[in-house]
Structures are given as structure tokens and as C-alpha cells.
Amino acid sequence: MSVRLAVTSDLHLGAANSPGLPWLVGTARRHAEDGARALVIAGDLVHRDVEVGGVVAPLVDALSAIAERLPVLFIYGNHDAAIGLADAMPPIDGAVAVDSVTPVEVRLPGVPLLFHCASVASDPDRRGIAEAFPVAPRPNGRVGVFHTSLHGGFHPVPCLPASVDQLASRNYEAWILGHIHHARVVTEQPPIFWPGQGDMRDLRVRPLPAASVTGSPGIHQTSTFRTSGRGRNVTSQR
Ligand SMILES: [Mn+2]
């Protein structure tokens, strides 16, 4: 029995070609009705030209509306970093914003998966941190979320450069990527892909082994566990 996720990236609110918040909310609702267990947004919620003060309220309203029925996980991309979005976002019930700019583990309430996530620290961000993601003993239930240009052939400005081999060697079920706006599957097995802008696709992954879902102490079960301040982890201890 697989776990179904709705995944997208690069909303770029404020840009002329942004698919917009009504698209995000409506499409997420359809995915929820079709059986998705969570929405994952792989960075760049906003465009770097926007005023952060004007974009936060509508963004929070939209994410809150989605999170009423579908847990939301998002990381910050380079455009989000450019305007300091992470510092301006309030906690959202049912949503997890990854403040950490180094890899952390995140769980969503009721979702038998362990997400490995890191946000972008700056615009641009040329750090090579792919190998700071832990190698999983087995892939089941592990999902990477990363805003990256990979090796540089897809985008003129590097963002958290990484190789496909580095990501694949982490031994996860899948990697959901942001930064590249055209949907592109880099590898099929494991799925390493950019869902692209204005696209929300299904991802089906195997759940965590049952023992690690129910038997581990200290699992985060709260619906809101964003921390304030850059670099503080939202990791859940296993
Ligand atoms: Mn980007």
C-alpha cells in the first residue's frame, strides 16, 4: 500500500507567470479528494521582486485553507531567501515550514513518511550540502525535498549544486526537487524529479516500516512545529 503525495514547486507569487494561489488551493483540493495524504512544495513560493509584507497574508490564508484537509510541507527556495520570507512567516496550523538550511528530518501528522529536507540559505546559494543528507538504511518511507539546480546543466545560476549520484546514494524512495520550472524527471528509479511550475503531480511511495511509525519515542505529533529563527531545526528525533 503506497502513500500518495501531491507535489509541486516554484509558485513564484508576484511573477507574471505565477500560477497563483487560487490554482494552488484548487489543485491541492482535487488531489486531497483523490487520496493525497500531504502537499509538498519544493521551494520558491514567492518571486524575489515582491514586497514580503504584501505576500505573507494571502500566502498564509491559502496554505491554511489547504492544511485544513491536507497537511502541507514546504521548503524555502532562493527567491524566498532573497526577501526573507522565512522570518516573516507565522506558524500555520497543519503546515510545516522548513527553516533549517541544513538537512533535517520532518514528519507530518498521520503521514507514515520521513521527509529529509533543507531550505536555501541565500540567493544564490552555492553550498554543496547533498552529502549532509543522511543515508537511509532502507528507502521505504524516506522522501528528499530539495531546491537545487543539480549539476548546473539546467539553470545558469547554481543553487545548492548536487549530483544525481549524490542524491541517489542517500537511498530514499524519491527526491522532490524545486528551482527548475519545467517538469523534468531526472531518474525514474528512484524518482528524482522537478514537478515544475504550475504543475502538481502525484507521487506514490512506500510507507515507513510499521515499527518506525508506531514504535519510536519522540516522534513529532503536533500539527504545527515550525520554529522561529533561521537555522534552528524542525527535526523530529527518532
Ligand atoms: Mn529557485
TrEMBL record:
Biased composition range(s): Polar residues: 213-227
Gene3D superfamilies hit by this protein: 3.60.21.10
Location of the Calcineurin-like phosphoesterase domain: 4-85
Alphabetized GO MF terms: exonuclease activity
Alphabetically ordered keywords of this record: Exonuclease, Hydrolase, Nuclease
Pfam families per the UniProt record, alphabetical: Metallophos
InterPro entries: Calcineurin-like_PHP, DNA_Repair-Maintenance_Comp, Metallo-depent_PP-like
Annotated stretches, region: Disordered: 210-238
Taxonomic superkingdom: Bacteria
Protein name: DNA repair exonuclease SbcCD nuclease subunit
Lineage of the organism: Bacteria, Bacillati, Actinomycetota, Actinomycetes, Mycobacteriales
